[in-house]
Design goal:
The structure is a homodimer.
Chain A: E1 2-8, E2 12-18, E3 24-31, H1 38-56, E4 63-70, E5 73-75, E6 80-84, E7 89-92, H2 94-99, E8 106-110, H3 111-122, E9 130-136, E10 140-146, E11 149-150, H4 182-185, H5 187-200, H6 205-210, H7 218-226, H8 230-253, E12 258-262, H9 270-283, E13 293-296, H10 302-317
Parallel strand pairs in A: 1-4, 4-8, 9-12, 12-13
Antiparallel strand pairs in A: 1-2, 2-3, 5-6, 6-7, 9-10, 10-11
Chain lengths: 321, 321
């Protein structure tokens, strides 16, 4: 049997066929063109999936389930997308619409949850019974995997780890609250801190490299820190301290077997991992107790397709965990 | 079949016999005398349990399991108490020691987890598949129940909700970290804020009622707020705002079906519940989505015995959730 996984993004639809181990056998993609009516987007999701299926050499009879990762909130019982800001979708009956083209069981979940599931089935956290995935990008997304299955909560709004309060009356967040975790741990936060440092210290390597303040990005700041620029190092130190505190909040809450870091910032690799791992013990509640291993995600862009395909597989086994 | 539940506290050992519905059929208690060698404490735990069993009219053959709630951290696979500050215990082989007296399966967990399980089996959250329990006392304890079973994490240190970071570089906590949730949401925090208010406003009802600053306790502050004293109202407003933020962090993380408030502060009843419920929507990430109902615990002191008894029952059904 094979599994269809669809990664629905704001700019691209990627569909793939995987086996039960989460290996991608074939894939296809097309532009989302988000401003179209949702029915056209769904039609293209189906045709992408069918193209990938054809490439894989399998027929529709071999397909067990369809899983979809969306940049938003889904209701799995009804199979609807509750909302998806990037696509301007609200209450879209995605399952029903897709089943007009491919009549197989459809399962939908948030893209960060799906990426976390991919790592836990076919990536760095494979074999871990519980893991928490953090995407460190423009925002911070989260995926919680318990006993090998995604935990999305009683109302589908769990694992919004970017919006845990990390600072009472802290930096205002795009979500309307203040002091959310993603204001301190996202790439956006790192860039904000880097730009502040460049403004205060025009002699920094950060500004010399970037040329102008608006050209400062996350990678540049991390590169400057790696090269020993004291201002960049201070920013990186502050950023990784916030991340260590966030990870400790995850440990105190769920105590997972593993914590997996993904998203753009995780491209900093071992340099990031070393800095974060070094700081975590400072914030542990029980210094003498073991805690979840912190690792970098390994599946990259493939995580969207793999996790979506695995979503169908694990949810078909039984409703939630 | 019946279940033995033992609530091991720093000052009192309470043991009870329950049926499968979590109804207490008989109970017995004795002083802990924590400074004794642990073997003597365990011997008294067993004799308390056997006395309760005799009172219940059942024989040892009817006993299915023994569950124990401890004010500390347990390792359920080995059946050991890893540590228990109040009792001065560390790495105590509680299961082995207790089975010298009563040879039945023994399950051990943290007291807040056990109280949360009690509410979810026989109390206010009965019927909810997922719930999070918060004890608002000297500190803040937490219990997480997912699919009807306690979630204690990969290393037994989950649900330490009092030690989530709520304020970066915030008020120093007894655990060694700064800005922990319990520094803002415990009875201790409410008292600290009340005493500050009394110091700044000697004309407050708080000081008039208490006589002196050191006599100010949580109940007095809440009573003054209830009676309309503007300073007490301001303190209560701030306290319930922190609690609403903490509850929203729980919603964003786990999105449980219910959130249950227990511990001393929950004795403020509907007055507390109304204030907290009113504030929660201000901090919701998804304003249009439903979220877990917030309720008060109903089992009071019985929760320790009931939850411990239910712990044996649910864990015997299968390892964790």
């Amino acid at each position: 049997m094979v599994y269809i996984g669809i990664d629905l993004g704001g700019t691209k639809i990627a569909a793939g066929i995987t086996n039960a181990q989460g290996e991608i056998l074939a894939q296809a993609s097309t532009a989302t063109i988000a401003e179209r009516p949702y029915k056209e987007v769904v039609r293209d999701m189906a045709s992408c999936a069918l193209r990938a299926l054809e490439k894989s050499g399998h027929t529709i009879d071999a397909v067990e389930t369809i899983g979809i990762g969306i940049p938003g909130i889904a209701e799995n019982k009804a199979g609807t997308v509750i909302f998806c800001t990037n696509l301007g979708w609200s209450n879209v009956p995605l399952r029903d619409e897709l089943q007009k083209y491919i009549n197989k069981p459809v399962f939908i979940d948030n893209d960060a949850t799906v990426a976390g599931l991919a790592e836990s089935r076919a990536g760095v956290s494979r074999g871990a019974a519980s893991s928490v995935f953090l995407t460190l990008g423009t925002g911070v997304g989260g995926g919680i995997i318990l006993n090998g299955k995604p935990w999305t909560g009683a109302h589908g709004v769990a694992s919004e780890l970017g919006h845990l309060t990390l600072e009472l009356e802290g930096i205002p967040c795009t979500c309307g609250k203040d002091g959310c975790l993603e204001r301190y741990c996202s790439a956006t936060a790192l860039i904000r801190m880097g730009r502040e440092a460049a403004r205060l210290h025009p002699d920094s390597l950060i500004l010399a490299r970037a040329g102008s303040e608006d050209k400062i990005d996350g990678k540049l700041i991390i590169d400057c820190a790696r090269e020993g620029d004291p201002y960049a190092m201070k920013v990186f130190d502050r950023y990784t301290r916030y991340l260590a505190i966030a990870i400790n909040t995850i440990v105190s809450f769920i105590d997972p077997e593993m914590i997996v870091l993904g998203g753009g910032i995780s491209m900093a690799g071992q340099f990031l991992l070393d800095a974060v791992r070094e700081k975590i013990p400072n914030y542990l509640m029980f210094k003498a107790m073991p805690f979840g291993r912190v690792e970098l995600a390994v599946l990259g862009n493939g995580a969207g397709i793999i996790g979506a395909a695995m979503l169908g597989m694990v949810l078909k086994e039984g409703e939630s965990l």
